[in-house]
């Protein structure tokens, strides 16, 4: 069994797995590669699908699809690197475990900060997305237009989703989320063909029609940012492959999820932008000049039902490893049964993550800005940079005789030429992605035309508000 290697000073103890255990206490992998592929795809798709047209609009038809292909390939390659190391160290059950085995304590802490930090900071975003969906469908008496009240209303359901505990238990929910993504796609395409967008600015094949160079570059970076957070398999590779009957089959899962991601950009992005033009909203429901996204509209109602259900699952998939991490650190000997005392105990272990998400969703003045900076500071690092650095260290420790491409029987260099090229490409894409995501995050604060409104609180308890229109 692996040891608890979570935070500095954590005691060594048997770790509770993210895969369900049999009665005998042995870890049982029951997930097939198709189920794992759906889980990888739906990890970000319910929130990403809303912004896919915006990515194509700002990078151009050809540019947006090219960025999607490059980022999807680099993400699959980075996840494959993690999988190869996981197979070499099968006892590793978490991202941090693998980092410790290959790179030592520093790599473990670095990996945990990146992965768990993303989960912790994205949970309030998923919580808010669920609340926005509810608000967009119906105005509940007494809540008015205060989004915080809607956040608090859906928060109880989000708390319950945390209690699934393992990815194995989440299989049915991820399948429902997959169906919700399909439902959202159908609603978006139907809306695009049934409603006109006025005024409509034609999109370009590459780039966007903004006249100012700085604004044009920041808009282009938006396409990079959305492509980066739409597909993030490395966040689940170690944990999900642990849940599988044959961990090596996770390669099939990665390619399946990657193909679905590309299809999402090609179908939804190009069709919607071709109909509505360049000036679509950063999330499709924010597009002005179309009548479909209004309360009472049937397409809008179904779209938001699918969106809300899908984002509940997004919240669940973020909270499961985060809650388990807390349990491992605070109660490594937890029995992990479904008796009432253990259910209440696990609720207590996962409660701090829920409360942090609720606090951030209430007191962060702009969720859009939070998403931008979380993306820049975590996603390129977890999906490409960290796997490339860790895999390079892993390759350098591999016996030289494993290299069949070396003309000297592998005695001089244990690393194959193809492996060097792959690591270099993935690492380079990661750094470019980080720079582009950072440009988008900072640029959306620097330019008046792009800066969002900021608000903490509601009309009767307003703490702070700023809007460029004021």
TrEMBL record:
The keyword Disulfide bond does not apply. It comes from the Eukaryota. The chain crosses the membrane at residues 36-56, 62-83, 119-137, 149-167, 176-195, 220-242, 254-278, 346-367, 373-392, 423-447. Residues 32-397 form the Amino acid transporter transmembrane domain. The keyword Transmembrane applies. GO terms for molecular function: L-amino acid transmembrane transporter activity. Coiled coil: none annotated. Pfam families: Aa_trans. It is a multi-pass membrane protein. Keywords: Membrane, Transmembrane, Transmembrane helix. It is found in: Membrane. GO terms for cellular component: membrane. PANTHER family: AMINO ACID TRANSPORTER, AMINO ACID TRANSPORTER TRANSMEMBRANE DOMAIN-CONTAINING PROTEIN. This is Mtr protein.
């Amino acid at each position: 069994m692996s040891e608890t290697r979570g935070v500095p000073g954590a005691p060594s103890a048997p770790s509770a797995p993210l895969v369900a255990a049999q009665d005998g206490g042995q870890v049982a992998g029951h997930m097939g590669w198709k189920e794992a592929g759906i889980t990888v795809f739906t990890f970000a798709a319910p929130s990403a699908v809303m912004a896919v047209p915006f990515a194509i609009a700002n990078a151009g038809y050809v540019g947006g699809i090219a960025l999607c292909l490059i980022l999807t390939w680099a993400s699959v390659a980075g996840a494959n690197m993690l999988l190869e190391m996981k197979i070499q160290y099968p006892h590793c059950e978490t991202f941090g475990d693998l980092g410790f085995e290959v790179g030592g304590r520093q790599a473990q802490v670095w990996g945990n900060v990146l992965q768990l930090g993303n989960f912790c900071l994205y949970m309030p975003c998923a919580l808010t997305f669920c609340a926005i969906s509810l608000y967009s469908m119906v105005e509940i008496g007494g809540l008015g237009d205060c989004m915080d009240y809607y956040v608090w209303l859906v928060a109880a359901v989000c708390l319950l989703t945390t209690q699934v505990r393992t990815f194995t238990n989440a299989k049915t929910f991820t399948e429902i989320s997959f169906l919700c993504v399909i439902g959202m796609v159908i609603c978006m395409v139907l809306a695009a063909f049934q409603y006109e967008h006025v005024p409509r600015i034609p999109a370009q094949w590459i780039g966007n029609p903004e006249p100012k160079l700085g604004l044009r570059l920041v808009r282009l970076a938006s396409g990079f940012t959305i492509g980066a957070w739409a597909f993030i398999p490395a966040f689940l590779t170690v944990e999900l492959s642990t849940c599988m009957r044959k961990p090596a089959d996770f390669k099939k899962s990665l390619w399946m999820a990657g193909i679905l991601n590309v299809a999402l950009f090609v179908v939804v992005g190009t069709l919607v932008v071709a109909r509505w033009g360049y000036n679509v909203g950063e999330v499709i429901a924010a597009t002005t000049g179309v009548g479909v996204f209004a309360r009472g509209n049937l397409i809008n109602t179904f779209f938001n039902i699918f969106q809300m259900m899908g984002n509940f699952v997004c919240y669940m998939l973020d909270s499961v490893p985060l809650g388990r991490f807390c349990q491992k650190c605070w109660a490594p000997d937890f029995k992990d049964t479904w008796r009432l005392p253990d259910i209440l105990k696990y609720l207590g272990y996962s409660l701090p993550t829920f409360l942090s998400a609720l606090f951030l969703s209430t007191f962060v003045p702009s969720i859009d800005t939070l998403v931008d900076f979380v993306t820049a500071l975590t996603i390129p690092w977890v999906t490409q940079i960290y796997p490339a650095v860790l895999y390079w260290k892993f390759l350098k420790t591999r016996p030289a005789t494993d290299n069949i491409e070396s003309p000297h029987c592998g005695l001089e260099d244990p690393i194959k030429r193809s492996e060097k090229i792959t690591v270099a490409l993935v690492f380079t894409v990661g750094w470019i992605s980080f720079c582009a995501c950072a440009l988008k995050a900072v640029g959306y604060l620097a330019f008046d035309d792009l800066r969002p409104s900021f608000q903490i609180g509601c009309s009767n308890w307003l703490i702070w508000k700023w809007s460029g229109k004021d």
